[in-house]
């Protein structure tokens, strides 16, 4: 019994394949029913985001499990099976758990170290659990993956360095103002980049938003998103004095903010401090503006430098993160290995106990009237013989459980001592914990 992961992501499959293999929330319950109706699947979780679709499963047989999931994906999506095989990757055993841990930590994301994926992994697991699609092994796998993702972020700070232009602007704004709470921003242009930058600034404490755009309707629409107000494009200088931060990103082929007009505003407010962020190419803000007292101007190159430097920091943090992931994967592998040994060890001890009790009864009957002390000595002798006889095989079995040969040695012990029937009886009666298939179907 092993963990496998079958899937596609932004690195392995084009968007037209990824979108056909994706899962909507409405399709999940039926998908889990269909997967778990196959005896090869003991438990599973479907992770479906804009950049990846992956199915993690605890399977009785690795190759049958992979084949089952690929056939399921083909039937669900209608994508030709040859394309399913071409674009899907398959991870087995420790590679599968390692992949999930890296995904949860943001190490496999398009944006290195991004934080959203951890929440997506958690939500995917919670839904699978809700639909009774998980078993003990899958539960432990995902809980450890979520824990590993948190640990990576806490110990490496991999998500503390802005690696998008829009968020880099926030980082620079903090350097200028320290605290953005209560600050105001004038947004010139109503495009996507202006919107993203304003969104990040508002999320970090900026409270006043003024939007100016050549199309007043678009300015109103963007201002409405942030509870701000729109102003006409030819009146933007009238409102410059109200802004602490200016974001400009228009499609103009010439400067839309000039040093002379900014100087006039500053003459009326000598103590005014303004940070200007020019994201446009060609530039919107005349470069001479940066020479004005109280003005800090950043252009797209300055923002890109911040992004590049922060990306290097994330790559350094990723090296530490990989070491953490290796530790977490090793711990999970040890736990998983022991799960298959525990029933065998329990059954072996039970077999020894049954033999001991049977022979003690026979010995006591043959010896006749014995004192309590004599019975204790004989019982102690029998205990010692059984314990010493079983100590080495049990110790060795636990050691081999942590290797690829663990299942082979476990099966050998089961056959040598005829433990299968005993374990099945114990499992049926709930007296012995076995890796069990997810219950509850329709």
Automatic annotation (TrEMBL):
Annotated function: Catalyzes the NADPH-dependent reduction of glutamyl-tRNA(Glu) to glutamate 1-semialdehyde (GSA).
Record domain Glutamyl-tRNA reductase N-terminal: where: 6-156
Source species of the chain: Desulfoscipio geothermicus DSM 3669
Lineage: Bacteria, Bacillati, Bacillota, Clostridia, Eubacteriales
Reaction catalysed by this enzyme: (S)-4-amino-5-oxopentanoate + tRNA(Glu) + NADP(+) = L-glutamyl-tRNA(Glu) + NADPH + H(+)
Site (Important for activity): 99
Entry binding sites for substrate: 49-52, 109, 114-116, 120
Pfam families according to UniProt: GlutR_dimer, GlutR_N, Shikimate_DH
Sequence ranges assigned to domain Quinate/shikimate 5-dehydrogenase/glutamyl-tRNA reductase in this UniProt record: 171-306
Protein name as it appears in the record: Glutamyl-tRNA reductase
């Amino acid at each position: 019994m092993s963990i496998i992961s079958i899937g596609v992501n932004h690195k392995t499959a084009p968007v037209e394949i990824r979108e056909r293999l994706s899962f909507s929330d409405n399709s999940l319950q039926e998908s889990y029913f269909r997967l778990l109706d196959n005896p090869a699947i003991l438990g599973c979780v479907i992770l479906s985001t804009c950049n990846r679709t992956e199915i993690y499963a605890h399977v009785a047989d690795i190759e049958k499990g992979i084949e089952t999931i690929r056939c399921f994906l083909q039937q669900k999506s209608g994508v030709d099976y040859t394309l399913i095989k071409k674009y899907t990757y398959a991870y087995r055993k420790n590679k599968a758990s390692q992949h999930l841990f890296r995904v949860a930590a943001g190490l496999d994301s398009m944006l290195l170290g991004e934080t959203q994926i951890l929440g997506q992994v958690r939500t995917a697991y919670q839904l699978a659990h809700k639909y009774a699609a998980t078993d003990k092994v899958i539960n432990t796998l995902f809980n450890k993956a979520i824990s590993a993702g948190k640990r990576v972020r806490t110990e490496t700070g991999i998500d503390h360095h802005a690696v998008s232009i829009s968020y880099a602007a926030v980082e620079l704004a903090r350097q200028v103002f320290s605290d953005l709470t209560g600050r105001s921003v004038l947004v010139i242009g109503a495009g996507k980049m202006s919107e993203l930058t304003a969104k990040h600034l508002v999320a970090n404490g900026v409270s006043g938003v003024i939007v100016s755009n050549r199309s007043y309707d678009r300015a109103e629409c963007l201002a409405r998103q942030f509870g701000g107000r729109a102003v006409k494009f030819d009146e933007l200088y009238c409102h410059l004095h109200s802004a602490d931060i200016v974001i400009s990103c228009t499609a103009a082929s010439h400067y839309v903010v000039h040093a002379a007009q900014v100087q006039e505003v500053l003459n009326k407010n000598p103590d005014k401090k303004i940070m200007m962020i020019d994201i446009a190419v060609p530039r919107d803000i005349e470069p001479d503006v940066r020479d004005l007292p109280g003005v800090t101007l950043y252009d797209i190159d300055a923002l890109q430098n911040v992004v590049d430097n922060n990306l290097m920091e994330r790559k350094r943090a990723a090296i530490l993160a990989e070491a953490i992931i290796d530790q977490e994967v090793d711990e999970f592998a040890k736990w998983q290995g022991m799960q298959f040994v525990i029933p065998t060890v329990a059954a072996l001890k039970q077999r020894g106990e049954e033999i001991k009790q049977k022979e003690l009864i026979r010995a006591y009957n043959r010896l006749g009237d014995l004192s309590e002390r004599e019975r204790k000595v004989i019982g102690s002798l029998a205990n010692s013989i059984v314990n010493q006889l079983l100590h080495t095989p049990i110790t060795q079995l636990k050691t081999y459980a942590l290797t690829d040969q663990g299942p082979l040695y476990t099966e050998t012990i089961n056959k040598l001592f005829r433990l299968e029937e005993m374990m099945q009886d114990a499992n049926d009666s709930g007296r012995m914990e076995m890796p069990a298939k997810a219950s509850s179907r329709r």
